[in-house]
Design brief:
The protein has 372 residues and is α/β, with parallel strands linked by helices. The protein folds into two domains: 256 residues, TIM Barrel; 75 residues, Arc Repressor Mutant, subunit A (Orthogonal Bundle). Helices cover 38% and strands 20% of the residues. The protein has 14 helices and 19 strands. The chain has a nine-stranded mixed beta sheet. Helix 1 runs parallel beside helix 3 and helix 7 packs parallel to helix 9. The mean pLDDT is 96. The chain binds iron/sulfur cluster. Iron/sulfur cluster binds next to loops.
Length: 372
């Protein structure tokens, strides 16, 4: 289970707080970066081999699709596995970059899943977000990917956009409905949908601090989330994690393994790694060279993380395990109020606990009440 972080973007989105650098045309930063990732892959060969139980590669960013194809290929070939042999090999792409030739290149490299940041099906909102692409561009990119042969495409959306200073909404109900319609018309296999949050260092943070925007009230966000959940359920999507929906057979293998606590290796500046036990490391957000540091997780860290990651999923956590990890009074109270329910999975008699979908929106507060 390997993650490669590509820290380049052509422009910065209004809401973004991820680590990324501006792609300078003609600069050699991308070459230095790719060489550094190849050296790290070589140095950490044994770590990488030890994660092979989950046979996935995910290249995210930033915007991996701004990297010259030859450099992307060089990094993939520097890994100790054959490029075409991954159960799931995902690359994040910006719709603006997805030409027929680029789609063909990705397929030839063994990529079998695309994750495309569409974010909205409304051009005014895309401009506000400072996204590079238009709605028509996103639709064209999706169709290009399909025609090329991609049978597993995930689209990202954002809801809960802020209010203007006068209280008017940026994301009106009609625009949200149009966005959901636009999404469903494309029939992607997978959908990730995140509530906008104000990230440190983002342009949005400055706008909020200056008072030209304010955060959307939770009731508005909840209404948008509920509408999304009901429309996607009616279209046959399984809501398998708070922010993720999939048609049957298309849950993200890589992300699902993160949530189950599997070990992974992250390569590149800003990438994190976990040994599946107690050790987590991360690379510095510096270019072209980056360094690594780490921490040993305490019992408290591990139990908090296990509660948080498992209860965000529809399959939850075994009741016996949660009884050992969570605050007993809070657990009983959440069960009594129906904020948690017990369930069994089709292939097992083990009693599990999960947050029912109508309470997914408040999963953070349910989870924090359980943490000791
Ligand atoms: S949201 Fe993605 S594309 Fe936009 S600036 Fe951040 S990393 Fe780059």
């Amino acid at each position: 289970m390997i993650y490669i972080h590509v820290p380049f973007c052509k422009s910065f989105c209004t809401y973004c707080g991820f680590y990324s650098e501006l792609c300078r045309p003609g600069g050699r930063d991308a070459e230095f970066y790719a060489d550094a990732v190849c050296r790290e892959a070589e140095r950490r060969r044994n770590d990488i081999l030890s994660t092979a139980g989950v046979n996935t590669l995910y290249i995210g960013g930033g915007t991996p699709s701004v990297l010259p194809s030859a450099l992307l290929e060089k990094m993939v070939r520097a890994l100790p596995f054959p490029p075409g042999g991954y159960d799931e090999f995902t690359v994040e792409v910006n719709p603006d970059d997805l030409t027929p030739a680029y789609a063909e290149f990705l397929l030839s490299l063994g990529v079998n899943r695309l994750s495309m940041g569409v974010q909205s099906f409304n051009d005014d909102i895309l401009r506000w977000m400072n996204r590079r692409h238009s709605v028509a561009g996103a639709v064209r990119a999706f169709r290009t990917a399909r025609s090329a042969g991609f049978a597993n495409i995930s689209l990202d959306l954002i809801f809960g956009l802020p209010l203007r200073a006068d209280g008017s909404v940026i994301l009106a109900d009609a625009a949200w409905e149009d966005t959901i319609d636009g999404l469903l018309n494309l029939e992607p296999e997978h959908i990730s949908c995140y509530q906008l949050s104000v990230e440190k260092g983002s342009a949005l943070e400055t706008m909020i601090e200056k008072g030209s925007l304010r955060e959307a009230p939770q009731e508005l966000c909840r209404a948008q989330y509920d509408l999304l959940c009901s429309r996607l359920a009616a279209a046959g999507y399984q809501h398998y994690e708070v922010s993720n929906f999939a048609l049957p057979g298309h849950k993200a293998v890589h992300n699902s393994a993160y949530w189950s606590g599997a070990p992974y290796v992250g390569l590149g500046p800003g990438a994190h790694s976990y040994d599946g036990a107690r050790h987590r490391t991360w690379n510095s957000e510096t270019m072209p060279g980056y360094t690594s540091e780490g921490e040993t997780l305490t019992d408290k860290d591990l139990s908090e993380e296990r509660i948080m990651l498992s209860l965000r999923t529809a399959s939850g956590i075994p009741l016996g395990e949660l009884r050992c990890l969570a605050a007993p009074d809070a657990l009983e109270a959440a069960l009594a109020k129906g904020l948690l329910v017990t369930t069994t999975e089709a292939d097992s008699t083990e009693l599990r606990v999960r947050i029912p979908e109508p309470h997914f929106f408040i999963s953070d507060s349910i989870i924090s009440s359980l943490v000791i």
